[in-house]
Design goal:
Layout lengths: L3 E2 L15 E3 L7 H16 L3 H6 L2 H4 L4 E2 L4 E8 L4 E7 L7 E2 L5 E8 L2 E8 L5 E9 L4 E4 L4 E5 L6 E8 L7 E2 L2
Parallel strand pairs: 1-3, 2-4
Antiparallel strand pairs: 4-5, 5-12, 6-13, 7-10, 7-12, 8-9, 8-11
The protein binds fe (ii) ion (FE2).
The site of fe (ii) ion has 4 residues, from loops.
Amino acid sequence: MDSRTVAAPAAKAGVAPVPGAVQLPDATRTEVGRLAQSLLEEALCEGSFGRLLVDLDVEALAPLFAFAPQGYTRRVLASTSEAEILLMGWLPGQESTVHDHGDGWGLVRVLVGTAREDRFRERANGELQVMTTRAIPTGAILEECPGDIHRVAVPSRHVLVTLHVYAPRLNGCRSFVV
Ligand SMILES: [Fe+2]
């Protein structure tokens, strides 16, 4: 497996920075990016994204795996006006902010390693309280719905790679300080 550690590049113009994440150049012009684009367009026609996450397998995506000590990496694999596919690489100990997904809906497949997901509920006074914490093993798929507030982390000494599809594209996500 190619698990390169990369320097943090400048965020691409037009890509909203995500707190705590390192935005890598997109891969839409690579061979696997073109495959992802055709699968995404097919999935949009079918109205189902589950198969897409399985058809984009570890072997095809491995050349794009990348990690950064500054934070987890995000890379756009494919995008349309209605949806996008992202690949993320996480080093041991890294975690996302606590965040929601705006009005977006998403599926996340763990390609390599095990993720920990903490789900929160927002109290009437605005405070956040952890509701559940669970492990998401290799191969499992996590659903992210509008209104969900969570944090993804790497609980082990091993890297984590996750594949994400969002529809509509992520926009208006909130990050929370807890
Ligand atoms: Fe999320």
